[in-house]
Amino acid sequence: MKILVSILLGLLAIGAVAQGNDDLTMNNNRFVKFLASGNVDDGVKIGRFSGNALRVSYQGNVIAFDALDNRAIIFNNAGNQTKIQLHPAGKSFIKGGDFGVGLSNPDAKFHVLSDAVDINSTDEKAANLIIEASSGTRSMNEGATLGFVIPANTNGGNAWQQGRIMVTPNNESNANASGRMLLQTRYYNSGSWEWQNNLTLTAGGSVGVDVINPTEKLEVNGTIRSKEVKVEAAPWPDYVFSEGYELPDLGATADFIKANKHLPGIPSATEVAEQGILLGEMNAKLLEKIEELTLYVIELKNDNQNLSERVIELESKIK
Fold it and tell me: Whole-structure pTM over 0.90, yes or no?
């Protein structure tokens, strides 16, 4: 790169001597055109762009900067600080300032502006920014990752990746390109650093919290604490109060409880331990039992009132 810059500066010096346009020819072919003003139709143009800016232009399709022997192409500022480095075998970087793609006034270190993506787009690679990983195979344990690095030490040093978003296949079937998204954080476990699968989103719309392969729409490995939970359940057991509803026979209910150790229509402790319960369905069943108990109490009240009236009547006759 230093050789190339030296050549360019030397060519500028040649052009600075001449008051008009000058050519550098080789084998009767124009190789470089030095511009004082005006335009040329071929060759390389070197001149002042505006102010103290250097302009190098070429009418062809490609301008190539070559670094021989796998060396880096480096762009320094006036303080001889490397701001841009392009390396074919090492590290390439842009240091300082903001970098924009698709716009000339970026607002962040990396700012991309492109056409909006339709939420229902069928293009397999429709996105404003694409992160692609090639593993050579289709594996649910490997995928494309976006990592987040923060300091591990209180002095701001020892930077480590502490969180990441990873997208992997949702299955290992050939050509079945459904995806799975994982939100992971890094934690220390018995002498080694590991990744915790905090949140999983599957292709079928299932969400897992601390669950890697959720099978329900929301599956949580732990306790849920909430201000409110709304459950939509149907049918709701108002039918217990309908005309013609037959209350279970209390004698038969007593026999069932004695034999099974739980109420009819309610799962046993073993079933709940193995399969869990459906919250909406269980609340409806419990309400059904409460409504039946209410009807039993009303019947008992009526019976007691009838007995009280008969007792009063008998007492009046005795007197």
Answer: no
